[in-house]
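Q: Start with the shorter request: fold the first protein.
A: Done. Sequence, then structure:
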Amino acid sequence: MAPAPPAHDPGPRSSSGADAQLTAGLKRLVSDDGRTGWRLGSRIRNAFLTGLVIVGPVTITLWMMWGVIHWIDAWIKPLLPTTFNPDTYLPFPLPGLGLVIAIVGLTLIGALAANLLGRTLVSSGELMLSRTPIVRNVYGALKQIFESVISTTGPNASFQKVGMIEFPSKEIWSLVFVTGETTGEIKDVKPGGTDDLLTVFMPTGIVPPTGFICFVPRSNVVFLTMTVEEAAKIILSGGIVMPDMEEKMKRQAAAAQKKASRFRVGGDKPAA
């Protein structure tokens, strides 16, 4: 009797199919884990950089302000009598006391200098300093610098303007701060055959205290509408931070519209 034909044996085929499915699943799992890990690392990096952008400027600003406050306190607090110094009675030093005293003192000095007695005392002090060798040169230069920086009217008020000049060669433009019109001997000499010169200061890159003082014809200066603060941001960031002119124009348009609406309201009141 012939043996019966063997029944359908799914063993080898099923085993090979299961192995193939298992291999494909492992590949898919490895691939998914790779993408998931990459996405997770990218999110962590982006979150860290976002936190750094938010916290970094605030921390550095507070650190600089704290240093200035402590520096002023170290100058002012030793001048206070022990009886009037709050640090004598408090278990901890009071920060900012020197800054408050300095602001109040400068305000009082400015108020006293506005009357006749104050002007007399200031004139006497300046006369004494102007007759002291070496000291008069330093005092005169510092006084002119402070008057030029603080002044908001007159010929020295143009230091708030920002412009561009071709430097260091043609078709290469650099930002400059226009400090005023050139006067004195330099104007009298008329270098280049023109007497319409502007004094400009061109800072060098990320180190703004250093730079070049240039005397440039007015026609060679291209004036910009950006503020000194916006130009300083460009210089300090190495050109990374650029002012958003579209947003600035929107703010200016909104301010002009608000001003016009106030004018219309003010004009309607008398008519009513």
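Q: Next, the second protein, separately.
A: Sequence, then structure:
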Amino acid sequence: MQKFLKINDKDNCLVALMPLPAGEVLEVGTVQLTLAQDIPSGHKVAVVPIARGRQVIKYGYPIGNATEDILPGQWIHTHNVKTGLGELLEYCYEPITEQISAMQGATEGQEVACSEAADNRKSNLRDYFLGYPRSDGRVGVRNEIWIIPTVGCVNNVATSIAAKAKEFLQGTVEDVIAFPHPYGCSQMGDDQEYTREILADLIRHPNAGGVLVLGLGCENSNIEVLKPYIGEVDERRVKFLVSQECEDEEESALKLVKELIAYAGTIERERTSVDKLVIGMKCGGSDGLSGITANPLVGRFSDMLIAKGGTTILTEVPEMFGAETILMNRCVNRQLFERTVALINDFKQYFTDHGQTIYENPSPGNKAGGISTLEDKSLGCTQKSGSAPVKGVLAYGERVEHPGLHLLSAPGNDLVASTALAAAGAQIVLFTTGRGTPFASPVPTVKISTNDALAEKKHKWIDFNAGALLREDADAVTDRFYEYVLQVADGTRVSSEIAGYHDMAIFKQGVTL
């Protein structure tokens, strides 16, 4: 196994792929580099002298400025490098024309020059999954009954109904799940709109074969208020219940859930083109290997799915800061570029409006794993986007309507961002992590470890080990991962589903009454 990696020829640092002791001599090209300190796995080492104030380069881009002179072989981390990022910036659209044209051709079925081996590899990749067709033309990868409370006051009722309804499962219905949340009342402005939009998105989500919308009756976002956000529904698939109008809301709800199960239980999986797949991409608890293993693996998957007509969505906007120009210059037109600029600057303004430091990142866990600055984190984070052109920019709560790579406005918080991905239409979320987490989202959430140690230690959390990229052929690992994601789409349960975890969280910005 490799001991270290210099990611880009332009880099003036390398990354340790395993713990390296002080005094060890590394062969870096034609240069012998003696380590001045013990270097933890995922952390950086200077390859050449870096003067105070000069840029530290990783991934071929600056990740910060040295705060002191750094000699070859010395550890580079938070003690001697700081962010070089500023506040609101002006951007210039400099599209990567050749890259956009090549990927556009691949997604539109045009001939793109490939080696014979690459052609053979692509032809062996599956182009279908087994999904549940819905009346609106979308396709689910699960056939569940969802209970969506309109307000937090009925959370416990929703949870109780879901637990009792499991005994009525029949046919192809896989589970009954409640999604409690604390909102729907005592909210103002954008917060109330966000709640209504996210709830409506989940009610329309194709992974739900049936939905019970459970209201209280006096809340701000009551059922009648919510209905215009939901739009036209199939009455066999969506039922409504106002608790204050029932003598026994649980008894009434269970009758409706039985009807939903009877309807959804007759729907069978069908062979479906992968162009119906929408996949969300998120990372959390990142470490120094995230941008080397797990995130690039997801990026390769994204490119492969998009080339077959599918859709991917990248979010967590604050973790694009410092790498945003890479995404901006992959926008297919100036309008999308301008929307991406607004995406970035609006989120920076959100921090400023609340009196918070824009670059209060990375987290303690990120730093322990080897990430030193937000640029370092963001450049690794955006590896998940692969190389595809940006085809769409979505507001929070907006649903994807056409194929290709999309950027979604949402914060970095794992639960909030993953819920936003599901609400945007993702049937599956790919979640990379170097530290590990047991959380789930409303849809199957595939946990991808950046390293072997995490995969071995937390095997009940992790679904796929991208650490294999450091030991095995990259194409073989990528193809295996692609097939695994399609197996999840076919119905293979991920670890959080096996554990019975289903979470959701809605973005809150303002006043609570």
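Q: Describe the second briefly.
A: The chain has 15 helices and 23 strands. The domain at 4-82 is CATH 2.30.130.110 (Archaeosine Trna-guanine Transglycosylase; Chain: A, domain 4).
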